[in-house]
Amino acid sequence: MKKRKKKSARVDFKLFAIIAVLALLMGYAVLNRQGHSTLSADGVMVTIEPGSSLLSIAHQLENAGVVADARSFALIAAVSGRMRKLQAGTYEFKTPLRPTEALAILTSGKVMYFRLTVPEGSNIYDIAELAAATGKINKREFIDTALSPSTARYFGFDAPNMEGFLYPETYYLTEQTSSLKLMERMVAQFRKNFPEKYQERAQKMGMSTLDVITMASMIEKEAVVSADKPLISSVFHNRLEKRMRLQSDPTAVYGIPGFKGRILPMHLKRQSLYNTYRHRGLPPGPICSPDHDSIKAALYPASTAYLYFVATGGGRHTFTTSLEDHNRAVNSTRYN
């Protein structure tokens, strides 16, 4: 009788083990199921920021339609021990994946894209710094290429260099992205934001593309809020019409390497062709990359008689028509 019980116990244990294994396999299969969403033909890009938690990465993938369930992805990553091997970077996904397939990509270290975000108002040197931070672009090469007149001619611009024509936007670099290739994409974005109707408008105003972008870059540097841009533009247009110096502070410091501080009276006396305190008319070229609102403002200024403006806090400006009123506004700003 005792021997029969042991045999029965062994049979029961084997059956339990088989059932347990099958249950685990079925559970794993459920956890590792493929997403049902259909990604667009262009796919989707997911950026994993450095220091992101496992759960935040899992939810990013689920929200993007890459994996079916964030919790399943997180559980498999934790149990498999691969959660600590997830690599920051930007990845492209063409189809929904199983958690294990997504994990294989995110732990491979083969980041498909390196994100470069260029803020509006950046100049060539700023962009070179940001591009070099990706580790994929050589800073000195980018600056030299961007400042070369031959590069401007290559892209069809009658301009001294590429300043102003490298549109501020987010770009994705690969291992093969060169300085010139990056500029090609930035110029393509510029052309989207300077359509044919803008070119026609510029011709009617007697302005070249270089003139428009130069003024737009000054507007970009002067304005904090978009609502002020057409008003600032009107001041510049009115001053040009009256042959007054534009006296735009940002032009006085353009070209000073790494300048980030306050613009002082001594800067306004600086000898530079770009300094509109010393020279009449527009500078020889743009002083930064303007956004679409600044470009539009340069072409469609508000209809005003304003000749002066001063920053009054909160990102806004006070606009005036006479020097006397302007001085009052300046003094009011100083004491408030």
Description:
This protein is mostly helical and 336 residues long. Among the domains are: 114-192, no CATH class; 196-335, no CATH class. The chain is 49% helix and 9% strand. It has 15 helices and six strands. The strands form three sheets. Strands 1-2 form a two-stranded antiparallel sheet. A two-stranded antiparallel sheet has the order 3-4. A hairpin with a 2-residue loop joins strand 5 (308-313) and strand 6. It is elongated and about 75 Å long. The N and C termini lie far apart (101 Å).
Write the layout of secondary structure elements.
Blueprint (H helix, E strand, L loop, with lengths): L1 H30 L12 E5 L5 H10 L6 H11 L8 E5 L5 H8 L7 E4 L6 H10 L5 H9 L1 H6 L15 E4 L5 H14 L3 H9 L4 H14 L6 H13 L7 H5 L11 H4 L23 H8 L8 E6 L2 E5 L2 H13 L1
Antiparallel strand pairs: 1-2, 3-4, 5-6
Please outline what is shown here.
The chain is mainly alpha-helical. It has helices spanning 2-31, 54-63, 70-80, 99-106, 124-133, 139-147, 149-154, 179-192, 196-204, 209-222, 229-241, 249-253, 265-268, 292-299, 323-335; strands at 44-48, 89-93, 114-117, 170-173, 308-313, 316-320.
